[in-house]
Specification:
With 408 residues, this protein is mainly alpha-helical. The chain has one domain. The chain is 63% helix and 2% strand. It contains 16 helices and 2 strands. A two-stranded antiparallel ribbon has the order 1-2. The longest helix has 36 residues.
């Protein structure tokens, strides 16, 4: 593929275009992605993750370290919170940012076959192919929008920095980057880079992910408006939509990144303002709920069709089962079988068992594209970065003693 080709444009609604359509991707597009390609920090398949991580960390974290070192605020007791002891900053830029970047490749790989699966499983009726292609095209158009990313950048500086960060995120103590005064916050040289370069870039990475999830949710909603050709006896117990349920796992790194950011904020407040870990249990719970809604919520748009498919399947297969078991009863219990046909080894028994299996699949169809295990897995991934903070409640030795006491 040459550099002049544009493999990320939306496919046209023609049979030949459908056959050669590119993989579906929420991340292969937009000005920042194109900038990364031109800077040789990415390719068309989103590899070179390490190069992107190193380059972006060098922009966001390294200047803070160097400027703080020049100012003597790395470990200086002159400020209550020197740079090297500001855990929130290190977790945000050395853990969360790499996760946000790595999540792009993970999401791309896990979701690239979505469009192919809709076609391969013949879920879209012929009459609605144009509507499906229009939904794909709309998703690509939003993903590639320069106006959208510039709007996100403006939102970050106007709302994210000036309102959210300065009023709700800044640690209420003198630090390496800011000193609270009667007239307001006084930023150091490192603080200006932090507030006007590092924080906006990080927030942009975050809100761009929210925008991508919006694109995903909008695409799913548009597809759900099509009367899909769902099969109630499909073994995935989702009418054939099981491949969509699997896409939720693609957002695990994003959930871990959110958990890391919040864990960093908790750590800063525990170590520097005297807060306790249990003071934040409500925040942790809300974060888990938010991530569950963000990841699994868009999949709910298919629930009405799943309910209708199950209801129709129960009715139609119930009628079929009634006819079959009546004929089976007449033939084998009421003397209707030919005298030369043996009951043992008859295919009627296997057909009856197969019909029962199909009916059981319909009865156990799920009306939501997730499982309890999937919800718990996402919650665990979100909470995992906060687990080390349990050591602030009691020493590791005491924790291990209690754990062994429970287990043994």
């Amino acid at each position: 593929m040459t550099s002049n080709e544009t493999p990320f444009a939306a496919p046209a609604a023609t049979p030949s275009a459908q056959a050669n359509a590119p993989d579906f991707s929420l991340v292969l597009g937009g000005p920042l992605f194109q900038l990364m390609r031109r800077a040789h920090l990415s390719d068309d398949a989103l590899t070179l993750v390490r190069k992107r991580v190193v380059a972006i960390v060098a922009i966001l974290w390294l200047p803070l370290f160097l400027i703080a070192a020049v100012q003597g605020n790395l470990l200086s007791s002159a400020v209550p919170v020197p740079f090297l002891l500001d855990l929130e900053i290190h977790v945000r830029f050395l853990v969360a940012v790499p996760l946000l970047i790595a999540a792009e490749l993970y999401v791309h790989k896990r979701m690239r076959t979505v469009i192919q699966q809709f076609r391969a499983r013949d879920l879209i009726p012929e009459a609605d192919q144009s509507r499906f292609e229009a939904a794909v095209e709309a998703a690509y158009r939003l993903r590639n929008s320069t106006v959208a990313e510039l709007s996100l950048l403006a939102f970050v500086y106007i709302v994210g920095v000036e309102i959210v960060f300065k009023h709700y995120t800044v640690l209420q103590a003198a630090t390496w980057y800011v000193t609270p005064t009667a007239s307001g916050m006084q930023f150091s040289a490192a603080g200006y880079w932090f507030v006007y370069v590092s924080v906006p870039f990080f927030q942009f990475l975050l809100v761009r992910w929210y925008f991508r999830i919006f694109i995903w949710a909008r695409f799913l909603w548009q597809v759900s408006r099509i009367q899909l050709r769902l099969v109630p006896t499909h073994p995935d117990r989702l009418g054939g939509l099981g491949f969509l349920a699997a896409t939720a796992h693609a957002f695990s790194p994003l959930a871990a990144a959110h958990g890391a950011v919040v864990a960093g904020q908790f750590a800063s407040r525990i170590f520097h303002t005297g807060a306790q870990l249990m003071d934040f249990k409500a925040v942790a719970f809300v974060l888990v709920v938010v991530m569950v809604v963000v990841v699994f919520g868009p999949l709910l748009v298919f629930s009405p069709q799943l309910v209708e498919t199950q209801r129709t399947g129960m009715r139609e297969y119930g009628t079929l089962a009634q006819k079959y078991v009546r004929d089976f009863d007449t033939k084998w219990l009421r003397g209707g079988a030919p005298s030369d046909e043996a009951f043992v080894g008859s295919g009627d028994i296997q057909s009856l068992a197969d019909l029962e299996g199909s009916f059981d699949i319909i009865k156990t169809m799920r009306i939501a594209l997730w499982t309890k295990e999937a919800l718990l897995r996402l919650a665990a991934v979100t909470i995992a970065p906060m687990v080390p903070l349990a050591l602030t409640m009691m020493p590791l030795e005491e924790l291990l003693k209690q754990l062994f006491g429970i287990l043994f």
